[in-house]
Amino acid sequence: MMRYLIPLFAFMVLAAFLLVGLTLNPRQVPSPLIDKPAPVFQLNQLHEPDKVMASNDNLGKVWLLNVWASWCVACRDEHPLLVQLAKSGIVPIYGLNYKDERTTAMQWLKRYGDPYTISIVDSDGKVGIDYGVYGVPETYVIDKKGIIRHKQIGPVTADSLQKTIIPLIIELQKQA
Predict the structure, then answer these.
(1) Could you tell me which of 8, 29, 12, 46 has the C-alpha nearest to residue 135?
(2) CA–CA gap between residue 15 and residue 9 (Å, rounded)
(3) What would the pLDDT profile of 119-163 be if each residue is shown by its tens digit?
(4) What is the pTM of this model?
């Protein structure tokens, strides 16, 4: 009798773990970078390759870093929302063009609109690795002190903007 109870108990424990796992949102992968300083970078700008932008250039302001690429289908889905957000003037959006061709990326922005204050080029993906990019697109909310406060994995949605990102930006902008 006992030899049947042990496998039954093991099965019930595994089933419980499976049921808990099925209730989790796969888009909510916890980032070890939340509430930690954003990785420092210094990259060439997309439109003006002779100019450099550094992450420290944004100290003192709340900003978004949106990781995107012209080859990314999901980036096209979120792009109209980013264009609207940029027009609202709520927050500056900086683009991290990830593992892309410069000319293709510039054509893509010309075609779909350019919501970015500045786009920088991460052609080898090293900065993306530093930020823990799982896949494109990803968006980071970074506070005035250069601390990552939120990571949106996957495309920004109207719901994520209204319920999470914009309220967080407004709260962070009020802080000294």
Answers:
(1) 29
(2) 10
(3) 999 999 999 999 999 899 999 999 999 999 999 999 999 999 999
(4) 0.84
